[in-house]
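re: ur question from the group chat, yeah i did fold both. here u go
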Amino acid sequence: MATATAPPTPPTQRRFTVDEYERMAEAGVLPEDENVELLDGRIYRMSPIGSRHAACIRRLNQFFQVRLQSQALVSVQHPVRLDEASEPEPDLTLLAPQKDDYSTHHPGPDDVFLLVEVADTSLDFDRETKGPLYARAGISEYWVIALDDEQVHVFRDPERKQFETHKTYGLADEIAVATLSTLDPVPVKQILGA
């Protein structure tokens, strides 16, 4: 008697949901000191934050804290839940204010005015991997600060998996946050500490 066997199938990749990812962190599978992010179901180990990177985040934080007052909440390196398979921790996010400061849930795409990543070693990754995820989630404005190039890439108008508008700003430029029209433009020189 012959036994039927299923045809061989190639290996497939197992992706994780945000809920599974958070349970792994709670259980200690992902150590607290390990800098990881869940992007499109995949867990990525991120590069350690260098001093230039950290200084840029501090300058941005200070700039926005002083000017925003109650217009937006400044969130530094905290999770944003894009969908069921992505929960990045952007370097800086400007969020719609909530009375509970998001104590019951992580903010989602509809809560985000601006999302910023600082790139010293991750420029291609921030543009080519994170950018499409942010566009697909409907993040209205995304900045990538390219430290080595002394430039800020501004992405707006998300459409499916890409941003329709991409503009690059240099040291002599100022950038207006499109979603917060009352906010003063941000001088690129000040962001970069130049």
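okk and heres the other one u asked abt
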Amino acid sequence: MAEEKVAIADFVGSCLCGTVRFAVKGDFDSFYQCHCQHCQKDTGTAHAANLFSQSAVLTWQSGAEAVTSFTLPGTRHRKSFCKVCGSALPGTQIAGLLVVPAGCLDTETSVVPTAHIFLSSKAAWEGHLGEVPTFEGAPT
């Protein structure tokens, strides 16, 4: 009997509730922090942090039936997410391109952002973040 080869994932990730788990085998080509108004709306924060790959392979390990996506009509803006908890998840809606929200990875990565993009749309309050107090945990 021939031995079955199992690809070892370079990265693993999941949604907040744990329903969806996935693996990514391969390298990321770029890591953009996008400040456009669409990304602000779908993250609820100042920017989206997404990793991009034209060669990595995504495998849903569990919960694939809970993954859905939304495309903003009239745009190329797409978001994949868990139907149960709403967490952002990898998307493959653009042929030949895997987009992985950095925050859904469970594997630590040394990949650093390639660039900030769409800064012309950045939130007005974002420029003052360096002036705000910081805490290692929740403020007391």
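fwiw on the second one: The first helix runs from residue 37 to 43. The longest strand covers residues 48-53. idk if thats what u expected
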